[in-house]
Amino acid sequence: MKIKLPLFIAACTMGSSICFSQQGSAIREDFVPSSLNQPGQAYPQVNSQGYARFKIIAPSADSVRVSLGLGGRGGTKLERAADSSWMGTTEGPMDEGFHYYNIKIDGGKFNDPGAKNYYGSVRWESGIEIPAHDQDFYALKNVPHGMVQQVLFPSPSTNTSRRAFVYTPPGYETDSKARYPVLYLQHGWGEDETAWSNQGHANLIMDNLIAEGKIKPFIIVMTYGMTNEIRFGGIRDFKIEPFQAVLVEELIPYVDANFRTVAKASHRGMAGLSMGGMETRMITLNKPDVFSQYALLSGGLYAPEDIKDKSKVKMIFLSCGSRERPEGVKSAAEKLKAAGFNAVHYVSENTGHEFQTWRRSLRELAPLLFKN
């Protein structure tokens, strides 16, 4: 999950309300604090074009740079201001949606004191939100809301208790007879079980879709995918068996015993973004009797020959951003359809390997799940 931004030094005329990027295009001076700022903090800021502006108080520093994207690659060089703070604006507009970033001061890595923190890159990173033209689907609205609760479930295979977050839809608490399908939804590399709620707004996406009558309610379960033990670049060393045991032998029985689920493969799906998609692919192929609905969000592909018994698969969903490899997703879905599978593909326009892609993917996926 990387976003590369070249260096930028804002060029502003003294007393002017207009800045220019290095390419000479005008930058609108309508910057406002990011929606993810700490209470009362003015920076970082974003404008209506998607530029981000940063201000860091580090009077003794020799260099300050903002590194954006999971892993902190790419960045924006800040310049010392008259008050000894450091300021800078991205060279160009950023993709809509959520982005991780950190501050590098004289080579050391720090979080931005002005921004809230989110778990990514195997550490807590600062977060910034670039307003999206379609952000209404994950906005906090005056509609009935479900509940996201933390559960601690026993895990004999890891000799400890493990954590999961469970989204139950509006009405779950009041209708004691209703039973629900379940989607097991996995995060990506370097993230944890908080990602889909905090960065992805999965609960708000669900609430809004349910309020609009676009989906039938279902439960979502999000747990740590045992991905962080693998260093970036070491994916070939990843073994699925430990997490597969946690998910299939421990978490699913716990959820079925403690929540009102329909405890059948026909009413159980698995989805994941990026490395969570890789986990989804491995587990669904290894355990065809456990899940009937599969979704890979920027997380690999299925081929018809991968699936031994297509009668057990109700639906396959493949997605990615338009800046990833959309032709591969489209081609894979077409081959699955030709082989008789119910396969759907989705491409998020003008996004890459990032949460706006996956927010949109969940919006498209949810109405397809658990039909009939």
Describe this structure in words.
With 372 residues, the chain is α+β, with helices and mostly antiparallel strands. The protein has 2 domains: 11-131, Immunoglobulin-like (Sandwich); 137-368, Alpha/Beta hydrolase fold, catalytic domain (Rossmann fold). It has 6 helices and 21 strands. It has helices spanning 195-198, 202-211, 241-258, 275-286, 326-338, 355-365; strands at 11-12, 19-20, 26-27, 32-33, 45-46, 52-57, 64-68, 76-80, 85-89, 97-105, 108-110, 117-120, 123-130, 147-155, 160-168, 182-186, 219-223, 268-273, 293-297, 315-321, 343-348. The strands form 3 sheets. Strands 4, 5, 6, 7, 8, 9, 10, 11, 12 and 13 form a 10-stranded antiparallel beta sheet that branches. Strands 14-15-17-16-18-19-20-21 form an 8-stranded mixed beta sheet. Strand 20, helix 5 (326-338) and strand 21 form a beta-alpha-beta unit. The longest helix has 18 residues, at 241-258. The protein is globular, with a radius of gyration of 22 Å.
